[in-house]
Design brief:
This protein has seven helices and no strands. By secondary structure, it is mainly alpha-helical.
């Protein structure tokens, strides 16, 4: 797939990435709507208790509809913000423009800089040790960051679902 995308003009590459982001994000939104519609007994219900979902809820509570496009600048929280938007039943008249903008931001980042990095890596033979080293460093940083951010009272977990706004 990379060969095909790299052969396309930049505009078509960006469009392909935008379509991928829109498909994934809207799928997550509708999963959230399904959870809100009564599927809380399904396998997706545990998402509401996950730390990433809690961070997404906090981001949505702070930034409102701006959380949707801003989530495309994050790693790990993005899908949970989309699910959160669905669970809180963010109106489509607000969600669709926000997710379209966020998908455009994501497409621009990954369709230009991201593709250049991946293609450069593949041209060097695509050796796995640098990738594994990078993953190990990122994992270590995430673990250290989470240990520092642990609340003083870990027994106080609460699930917050805000009401829909019109």
């Amino acid at each position: 797939m990379m060969d095909r995308l790299s052969d396309l003009p930049l505009g078509w590459t960006l469009l392909a990435f935008w379509c991928l982001a829109m498909t994934r994000s809207n799928g997550a939104y509708w999963i959230g709507r399904g959870i809100a519609a009564g599927t809380s007994m399904s396998r997706f219900a545990k998402l509401l208790d996950s730390p990433l979902y809690q961070r997404a809820q906090a981001m949505a509570a702070r930034w409102g509809v701006l959380a949707v496009p801003l989530s495309f600048l994050t790693v790990g929280v993005q899908t949970f913000v989309q699910i959160s938007a669905g669970v809180t039943r963010m109106p489509l008249r607000r969600y669709l423009p926000a997710v379209a903008l966020g998908s455009a931001i994501w497409a621009l980042i990954y369709g230009s800089i991201g593709m250049a990095v991946i293609l450069a890596w593949l041209e060097t033979g695509g050796h796995w040790p640098p990738v594994l080293l990078l993953l190990a460093v990122v994992t270590a940083l995430v673990v250290m960051h989470r240990r520092r951010r642990r609340p003083a009272n870990p027994g106080s977990k609460s699930r917050t679902v805000s009401s829909p706004s019109g």
